[in-house]
Design brief:
The chain has 386 residues and is α/β, with parallel strands linked by helices. The chain folds into two domains: 70 residues, Roll (Urease, subunit C, domain 1); 297 residues, TIM Barrel (Alpha-Beta Barrel), CATH 3.20.20. 26% of the residues lie in helices and 26% in strands. It is built from ten helices and 22 strands. Strands 6, 9, 10, 11, 12, 13, 14, 15 and 16 form a nine-stranded parallel sheet that branches. Strands 3-2-1-4 form a four-stranded mixed sheet, with no helix packed on it. Strands 17-18-19-20 form a four-stranded antiparallel sheet, with no helix packed on it. Helix 5 packs across helix 6. The longest helix is centred in the first third of the chain and has 21 residues.
Length: 386
């Protein structure tokens, strides 16, 4: 983390001209100013010249299922040291914060995992060291449609209801930030308003919802879509479905896996253009436990997944997730020439913050920054922590 430093000649998302960033002795951004403003730093301050590169906050990953061999739904109290290692690994991968994602499993497993993450969040606040922070938990299930369950085990799927939500969350409601659910399964129309009243984001996913059902869910308070295109009806010119309705709603954010396997690059470009780039899309890794370990065969609940070139599949070929880090999606979008570099960076750093109502790069935010360099001649993007 930079302290007592002024960064000059920095490109920032949301600004037309190069800016300078003033970071105080506590490592907090004190001000962002145009390069034309008279220097207001004190004598002796360090100056860092970004030389026209892009500067951003670190990434926020709202859907990551594990790391370094540890699957978050299987976490035990003895795994706290491993969780510290995962946070350090993610920090080195440019991630400032993340939501450990619990895929569908037994209620007992979910509650045990929630108890451990609640304890870990408290530990991180006490330690206050530079590392990727657990911002809360994302429950990807168990309120999913059997017809779109993907790799989720069918025996643990539940019908959404207020009573089931209360039973599942028990006393851990305060750390749950997102719940992915299939809205068409809630015949009471009470679940999404209930979640909204508790400050929990309802994200639509693993769903067969049509456009009418999705629109109703958004009107009731759902504000997110889990891994757009995957585990939902496809876009169709007469049946736009859940995703079509999400793309035209300015209040809805769509998570996107930009690995080139979950979604074809052509469809990624369609989504980005239809959602005005960063306005309604954010990148997620959807990374599984083997992230950081390389390709190979790994256990996954009582099954196995095979990882090849960062893509994980079950033995029957079902796509299970990735082991590619979040910021690889930024590189892909630029190098595939799908969107401008500033927008691509925002999709991993600014947009996920907006989606969960956190501030982006601005005065008052930590000076833990990334520098992005785009080699236009070779069409390559590289980043590093400052």
């Amino acid at each position: 983390m930079l302290k007592n430093t002024t960064i000059i000649n920095a490109k920032l998302y949301g600004y037309q001209e190069p800016q300078k960033i003033l970071i105080n002795e506590q490592g907090i951004i004190e001000d962002i100013q145009s390069m034309g403003v008279v220097n207001s730093t004190q004598k002796g301050d360090k100056v860092y010249d970004a030389q026209g590169d892009w500067i951003s906050l670190g990434g926020i990953d709202l859907q990551i299922n594990g790391g370094l061999g540890l699957a978050f739904p299987e976490i035990q109290a003895k795994d706290l040291p491993k969780l510290h290692q995962i946070c350090e690994f993610l920090w080195q991968e440019g991630i400032d914060g993340f939501l450990p994602t619990l895929v569908t499993t037994s209620v007992e497993n979910i509650q045990r995992s929630l108890a451990i993450f609640e304890r870990f969040i408290k530990l991180q606040k006490e330690e206050n060291v530079p590392t990727a922070k657990v911002l809360g938990v994302h429950l990807e299930g168990p309120f999913l449609n059997h017809q779109k369950k993907g790799a989720h085990p069918a025996q643990y799927l539940l019908t959404p209801s207020v009573e089931a939500i209360e039973w599942l969350l028990d006393s851990y409601e305060s750390i749950v930030k997102i719940i992915t659910l299939a809205p068409e399964l809630d015949i009471s129309d009470e679940v999404i308003p209930y979640l909204s009243s508790r400050g929990i984001i309802a994200s639509l996913g693993h769903s067969q919802a049509n456009a009418k059902e999705a629109k109703k869910a958004f009107e009731m308070g759902a504000s997110m879509v889990t891994h757009a295109f995957n585990a939902m009806p496809p876009l169709h010119h007469r049946q736009p479905g859940l995703l079509g309705e999400a793309m035209i709603n300015p209040n809805v954010y769509c998570g996107l896996i930009a690995d080139g396997n979950h979604v074809c690059p052509t469809m990624i470009e369609l989504l980005l253009r239809g959602s005005l780039y960063e306005r309604g899309v954010f990148l997620v890794s959807d990374a599984l436990a083997p992230i950081g370990l390389g390709d190979g065969v790994y256990p996954w609940d009582n099954r196995q997944i095979e990882v090849k070139k960062g893509t994980a599949r079950l033995a029957n070929g079902t796509l299970a997730g990735t082991t590619l880090p979040l910021l690889m999606g930024v590189k892909n979008l630029v190098e595939w020439q799908l969107c401008p570099i500033g927008n691509a960076i925002a999709l991993a750093t600014e947009s996920p913050r907006k989606a969960i109502k956190l501030p982006g790069i601005s005065p008052g935010q930590p000076g833990s920054l990334l520098q992005w360099h785009w080699d236009k001649d070779n069409n390559q993007v590289n980043w590093r922590r400052l």
